[in-house]
Structures are given as C-alpha cells and as structure tokens.
Amino acid sequence: MRPLLRFWPDLRSRIGVYVLVLVLTLLATGIQLIIPVITGYIIDGPIAHKDLSALWLPVFGVLIIGLAEAVGMWARRMIVAPVVSTWEVTWRSRLFDRLQYTSVAIHDSWESGQLLSRAVNDLSQLRRFFAFGLPFLVSTPIVLAVGTVMLVIMQPVFGLIMIIMAVPAIIAVAVFEKHYRDTSRRSQDTMGEVTTDVEESIQGIRILKSFGRFPWAAERFSEISARLKSLEIRKAKLDSWLWSVLLLLPTLAQAAIVAVGTWGVIEGWTTIGTVVAAVTISMVLRMPIEMLGFLLADALMALTAAGRYWEVIDIRHDITDADGGVDDAPEVGRYSGKLRFDDVDFHFADTERLTLQGLDLTIEPGQTLALVGATGSGKTTLASLVPRLQDVTAGRVSIDDVDIRDMPVNELRHLVSVSFEDPILFSTSVAENVEMGAPGASEDEIWEALEIAAAKDFVSRLPDGLDTQVGEQGLSLSGGQRQRLALARAVIGRPRILVLDDPLSAVDVDTEDRVQRALREILPDSTTLIIAHRPSTAALADVVAVLDEGRVAALGTHEQLLESSKLYRELMGASAKAEAHAHPGTQSSAQTTTSTQSQEGGRS
C-alpha cells in the first residue's frame, strides 16, 4: 500500500473532515445491523405475546434508523466531494509542474499518451477511490466484524458459521489480489498506448490522408485495442470468480443458519426471533461481502494508478534552480550578452556516444553567429543548451562568464529567447501566442514584433486580426505563417540572447532576408545564435561556425570560409542547389554570390 500511503501529507491537511466522512460511511452502512435485533425483539415480544401496544416503539425505531441511514449517505457525499476534488487538483498541478521542469530529453523518452493517461485517467481513478472506495473499504470489515460479534452474542454457533465462511473468502481474496494487480497495471499501461496512438493519428491526419495510410493506422489501432480488450476480459474473469465466491459463501452461511436455527428452535435452545434476527443479520452482511469484490478491484486499480503517478513525480529533477527563483520579471538589462561554450561535452541519457565533444565557441555581445553543419552534427542540441532545455554533460555554458547553471532558471529564460524550425502555437488568439514571449505586452508592442517577423501583413488580413483563434497547434495557418508568429513571440521581449533554430525554413528567401535585416536594425544589442541551412542566412551573419561531429571544424566569416573550408563549401553548395530547386527563378543575390564563390573556391 506504499504508493497510496505517500499521499498522506496531502490528506493530513483535511484529515479531520475525512475522518468525519469515514464515520458517516460506517454509520450509514452499519446502522442497518440494529434492524435485525429489533425484528427479533418484535417476533419474540409483541408478536409472541400478542401485545399490539408494544409494537409502536420498535417500528418507530426502524423508521428513525432508515432516516439516519439516508441522512448519513447524503452528508457523506456532500462533504467528501469538495475534499477529494481539491486533492485531485493538487495532484494534477504537481504532476503538471513536474513536467514543466523536466528536461526535454526525459520528455522525449516518454510517450505522450502515457503522460496524458496518468494526468487524466489515473488521477480520476484516485479521486473516485478516495471519495468512495476507501471509505467503504475501511467501513466494510468493521461492519462484518460487528455483525459477526452480534451473531456470537445472539448464539455462538451462528457466529461460528460466519467465521468458517470467512476462511475461503480470505483465500479467494488473496489469490484475486495477486493476479488482478498485475493485470490492472498492464491494462492501464495499454490504455496509455491507446491514448498515444489516438493523439498521433489526430496530429498526423494530414500525413495519413496524403499517403492513404488509413488502413495501416486502423490496423495498428485495432491491434492495441485488441490487446486492451484481452486484458479487460481477463480482469472481468478474475472479477467474476471472486464475485461468484463472495456471492456463494453468504448464501451457504444463511442456509446453515436457517438449518441449525430450525434445529435449535425444535430442540429448545434458541428462539424463532433469534433465528430470524440471525438470518436477517446475515442478509445485511451479504451486501458488504458482495461489495468487497468491487472494492478490492477498485483499490487495486487505485494502487496501480498511484504507482504510475509517483513514477512521474519521482523523475529526477535535473534542471534545478540555483537559488529558488526570482521575481516573475527579473532585471536582465545588467547582462551584456556574451555567450560562451567552454569545452562542452553532451550525450543523451540513453547512450554514451557524445553528440558534442570538447566544443569551444564564443559569441560576443550583439554579434550574430550562424551555426552550420550536416544533419546530426549537433546543431539543435547545442542550441537547446542555452535556455537549459538540457544540461551539458561536461564543460560549461556561460553568459558574461556566469555559468548558466548558477543562474535562476526564471532569470535565464527571460534573458534567452528561442524560436524553433517546427513551431508550436497554442489553441488561443494570435495576440496571446505572441504575448507569451513578453507577458503584459501592449498591442503596439505585439504589432511591432509581428512587423519584425514579417507577419504584420498576413495577421492584419485574418478575420479577427490579433484576436483570431489559430486552432490547435496553429494548424489553421501555413507553415511559414506559424514560423513567423513563433519568431514574433521570440523577439517581442527584446531578449539579450536570441537562439534561432532555422526559424524561417518555410518562408521564401526574400522574406527571410527582410526579417534578418529587421532583426539587426531593431535588436542591435541582442546576441544571436542562428542555425542556418541557407547560404543567404550565413552570408548575413557576422561569424559562421561549422559544426562537424560535435566539434567546431571551422570559424570565420561567410567569405572566409568559402575560401578556406572545403566542408563549408560542400554544405553551402548543397544548400544552394536545394534552394534553387525549391524556389526556381527566385535565387537571391546572396545565393548567387555563394554559388559563384563556391565554384571559384573549388577551382582554386
């Protein structure tokens, strides 16, 4: 029960109210045991003596007990709902907070559906368990014990019958628990796979439609669903065996009490009223015994859900804050923006192969450095180290000679702004997506950022302008439009350091040229690290670094590298040809110059 016991710090704050819920549950389920006693009294008293006047008080008592049961159930539900809902919000917020501060590498190692199922399905299961399952799981054994004691007091042989019946019940429960827990875990994990598959199919609907891959997607989904079905059927079979045992045993106990009780009445060592009371108590106890199967299944699913929840919470918190954080809007103007990589090594958690090794690079304040390299050379990894989306394995990254690991994360991420090749927009308005880069920005500042990103014209033509809803992940916009909104989000806060991971790959060369010149004019003090694939992008940078197998292979201006670096000429020549094929007839002057110089360098 350890995963459930770990919730104790959260439960402790409202434990008084929760104890009241447990008491009300016990009252509502246990008070029915008094009715059989009253029934036995009526049979052996007023009925046996034909005393009608003595009947009114016990009948009134039965009425009061019924009202007390109803009020107890009503009060329990009214009290427990806000308590467990508050706990659910707390747990979900904790899970969400943990995911926000977990490195990107760890996110990449988890299927999104598994995280979603933990945040939604598992926490809903825990809320239901603490609201319903646990109170009844606590009260049911008490009711069974009290009922058995009452039978022993009435007639020891009746109590002995119930105790004998409990032995096979305990054995059945032990066998059930062992098999059901494993099946429940596998079922909940498979539900996470179903969630992942549905999410991927929805996000990739354009690919599935374009390639006519609906049969493949349907077959894959059917395979996972069939696996989930078999696990759910196994759970149902285990449930059915337990329920059958728990239904059969009380019936056998009732039959034994009736048989033994009848013999006792004939022999004169018990009364009809006692036998009727004992049989009625066994009937009252039958419901808790039958309910025990459901409660145990619910408890085991809650136990599995709790274990899955703590698996996420226990993820190593590798992106740590240096001093507990700063204000929401820290002052970053005191930094000049000198960005330096000192002997940086990096490898992903699932491999020892170094993506970056012994990398040294310095970008001076206000300087624009273009980072070029073949696919897999480590460009995007290097860019992700600056805002600490991941941390270096060895060496250090510093800003103004301060190790970024010694800076509060909140301050660092106000100092550094990023824009990625594959932009993510949120299901909200254009204005709110852009304002995310500078909370509280005015409308004029939003329009200025859009103008820098060459997005002002198309935004002004949208149906509701800045208030236009962009849809989930911004898929209602084109790729180039999404990239420009993401770039506007990155520049609106006028960051001291700007990291751009090929942010304009989906726009034409002329638009890219216009955006880069606007960036240099309006943000002259921003230190910029830009991952470049186009010659035109590299040509506009102050310095170009060529990355090869995780190291800086060459460093210089665009013109210098065309003359001195064969690798750079090959990279730029391939990029120029690709750009020419993608945009025939629209080759910019920068590209023409690059192609000419590349040819000259090759001849020399």
TrEMBL record:
It is an enzyme of class 3 (hydrolase). Residues 573-604 are annotated as: Disordered. GO terms for cellular component: plasma membrane. The chain crosses the membrane at residues 15-43, 55-75, 129-151, 157-176, 241-260, 266-285, 292-310. It is found in: Cell inner membrane. Pfam families: ABC_membrane, ABC_tran. Its EC number is 3.6.3.44. GO terms for molecular function: ABC-type oligopeptide transporter activity; ATP binding; ATP hydrolysis activity. Residues 586-604 have a biased composition (Low complexity). InterPro entries: AAA+_ATPase, ABC1_TM_dom, ABC1_TM_sf, ABC_transporter-like_ATP-bd, ABC_transporter-like_CS, P-loop_NTPase, Type_1_exporter. It comes from the Bacteria. Residues 19-301 form the ABC transmembrane type-1 domain. Keywords: ATP-binding, Cell inner membrane, Cell membrane, Hydrolase, Membrane, Nucleotide-binding, Transmembrane, Transmembrane helix, Transport. It is a multi-pass membrane protein. Residues 339-574 form the ABC transporter domain. Signal peptide: none annotated. Belongs to the ABC transporter superfamily. Siderophore-Fe(3+) uptake transporter (SIUT) (TC 3.A.1.21) family. This is Xenobiotic-transporting ATPase.
